[in-house]
Specification:
338 residues, mainly beta, 4-stranded antiparallel beta sheet, globular
Length: 338
């Protein structure tokens, strides 16, 4: 009888240890889901953000400015150029229009780089009035810049090298990232969506845009867990994906802006910094927990399908075959999509 008792006790403990909440990443972390690192390129500075353009990867790297790599062969990225001299401030996020890159450099505003010749990028003076610059979004000929406690700036960039300032308007909290409600920048956009730090997620009516000069009222708000760092949208539905720091991945339905609600979430275990959506997948950089990939076919129940461990994943870009991660410690990491 004593032997039977210990056997039952043993299996009971095993069963108890295996139990946990379905959304606890600790129960799943370890599998990469077929997402494999194919190459790494150590940058000279602390990689903060990456964008792709014409088989080139442009990477902001803190005090070391901007580095350009050829990724025509993702398994062997090659150095093209580096721009450091003349760049002031700390290079965070970047975005491009035509042959121009805009760099968010905090209190030094927005720096503009002509990349018509990627081997010899040319710097123009920074725009100090758009500060402290944190992140960007482009809608047609307009550049939206999240400027933290100052709100959101709108500038006309029909001439990309010479932005024409429209206004900076107040938002609740500290604007960290911004996007519009239509993925196609040529489409009509009714809403401007903002990740506002500890205040959460805010929505502004921009249906009557008036060349960026109008007053845009808050029509929706959501108190998110953690610190709302980044926001992107679903390609077909009025759904936003937010990276919320210690709050992880948050999925919000804004079909009724008067009643914005969380419909799904996942505790990433790390600090959710940036999120991208593609083909029913949400890709989230989580600092020391690396890159996490979620199947969000069911928006109310995201499933962690892969974790790729990196030292300090900050930002990412995704194409049809690869995920490109800007890692503050390791540089550019290129990951194949299964």
């Amino acid at each position: 009888m004593q032997k039977i008792f210990y056997i039952i006790l043993f299996f009971g403990l095993v069963l108890l240890a295996s139990c946990g909440t379905p959304n606890d990443p600790e129960s799943i972390i370890g599998g990469d889901g077929g997402y494999k690192i194919v190459s790494k390129f150590p940058t000279s500075g602390y990689a903060q953000d990456v964008i792709l353009k014409d088989s080139l990867a442009y990477i902001s790297q803190g005090q070391s400015g901007l580095i350009t790599l050829s990724v025509s062969n993702p398994k062997e990225p090659k150095f093209v150029s580096e721009l450091t001299y003349g760049l002031r401030g700390y290079s965070y996020k970047l975005i491009s229009k035509d042959s121009v890159i805009y760099l968010a450099t905090g209190t030094f505003g927005v720096s503009i780089v002509d990349i018509s010749d990627p081997v010899n990028p040319l710097l123009t003076p920074e725009i100090r009035a758009i500060a402290p610059a944190k992140n960007f979004h482009i809608m047609g000929d307009y550049l939206f810049t999240a400027v933290s406690e100052e709100g959101i700036n709108i500038s006309n960039i029909k001439d990309p090298l010479h932005p024409s300032f429209r206004q900076t308007f107040f938002v609740p909290g500290y604007a960290q990232a911004v996007c519009t409600s239509a993925a196609d920048t040529s489409a009509d956009n009714n809403y401007l969506l903002a990740a506002c730090g500890e205040v959460g997620f805010s929505i502004f009516d921009i249906s009557d845009f008036q060349d960026g000069y109008n007053v845009y009222s808050v029509v929706g708000w959501l108190d998110t867990p953690g610190y709302a760092e980044d926001v992107t949208i679903h390609s077909d539905l009025p759904v936003a994906f937010l990276a919320c720091g210690t709050g992880g991945l948050v999925i919000a339905d804004y079909s009724d802006t008067a009643n914005v609600k969380i419909i799904g979430s996942y505790s990433t275990g790390g600090y959710a910094k940036e999120v991208a959506y593609k083909d029913n997948k949400a890709f989230v950089t989580t600092g020391m927990r690396g890159l996490q990939i979620f199947d969000v076919t069911n928006l109310t129940s995201p499933v962690l399908i892969g974790t790729v461990e990196t030292d300090l994943a900050m930002s990412l870009a995704v194409d049809d075959k690869y995920v490109y991660v800007a890692d503050e410690s390791e540089g550019l990491i290129i990951i194949s999509i299964p």
